[in-house]
Amino acid sequence: MRRILKTLFWSVLAVAIGWYISTLPGRISIEAGPYTVETSDSVAVAAVLALFALLYIVLRLITLAVLVPRAGSLWRTGRQRRAGEQAVTRALVALAAGEKADARREAARARRLLGDTAQTLLLAAEAGRLAGRDDEAVAALQALAERKDSALLGLRGLLSNAIAKENWSEAAALARRAEAAHPGAAWLRQERAQLAVRAGDWAEALTLAGPAGPRAALSVGAAGQAALPDQAERLTRQALKADPGFVPAVLAHATQLRTRGREKKAQAVLADGWRRSPHPDISTLALAGVTDKTERLAAAKRLAAGAPGHPESHLLLARAALDAGQMAEARRHLDAAQADGLDQRRLWLLRAELEEEEHGDTEAGRMAQRDALRRAANADPDPEWRCESCHTTVPAWRPACPACLTPGSVVWRADSPREIAGTEVVA
After folding, report:
1. How far apart are CA 257 and CA 233, in angstroms?
2. What is the C-alpha to C-alpha distance for residues 329 and 309, in angstroms, rounded to an integer?
3. Whether pLDDT at 124 is above 50
4. Alpha-carbon 381 to chain mean position
5. Three-class SS state of 326
6. Which domains are delineated in the chain?
7. Is the separation of the CB atoms in 44 and 28 below 8 Å?
């Protein structure tokens, strides 16, 4: 109804204007050279209006002639885009349903219709992975990684693929590229740290470790891989600063100092380490250069003075005294260690050796040895390096557990047989 009223309004207006023009008085004369045109005002105005109408029609025709091909192209492009979007939707549905062939077909069709966009490449990669076509998935992810706007998507997919194949060196390189493409991603930093631990790149792991990370353990590991002695010494000093009582740091720093001819300083580090955390490896390194048994006992006494009441000090002095032939002193230290509550195999094995040395092949000596060996069989196990996270036992300290890859989890400890039941031993 409104359209009819509008049409009537414009029709009446046009008739009124026409009638008004027809009633205009006067005449118009136009001379052009020898030609003269004379007409009434109403006819002249009508001619001008007709001329404008003709020009408008001509211009519209020219515009249509220019724009029609472009409009057709836009129409075809829109139709192709809509078909591509439908293919993307069908590919997503096929992926959700686990239909491998349909997912690959629709993903390929979407790429043909829409080109290599981030969405189509990601669909093609996922469809290829679902179908077990790693070559297709990797090719799509590599193309995705080359795009600036979606590089992280491609690199993350390639990173997951490298991790699944346990290609740790390639995974670490991809993680670094992903970090450069998208700096500051928390998950990426954590992933890089885990890859560095897997690859045994302790310097990289130390760089990526946060303030609360096991910096002492990672610093010792990095020192063992350092190419320059100055760098290794700096890292071991850094480890001691992070944890002054950390036995591997004490041993590593003292070894660096001794290698560089700074024996006095190395002994001071070992003495301080023994005072903080007595450990058999510290005494072994501290007494390594002493061959005379009497001098060795004296050196052991100087070292044990840092922790005189500790069971490790008693065991150290008992061993040195036994080697030096001082049986009474050896027995005194073994009795002191036992009185402190130590009931480990090493104590009873050392006592059996003492009984053999002191009493020889006598009835009393044989009885004392049998008693010591019987008690050793039922005693608590000796301390060893063990992962606090998964309880795996390792023969020597490592910056990370070789079983669960937890950095800084390997500690020196003695457990009861019940506590170590079911634990794994890694060579």
Report:
1. 8
2. 15
3. yes
4. 37
5. coil
6. 223-286 (no CATH), 292-380 (1.25.40), 382-427 (no CATH)
7. yes
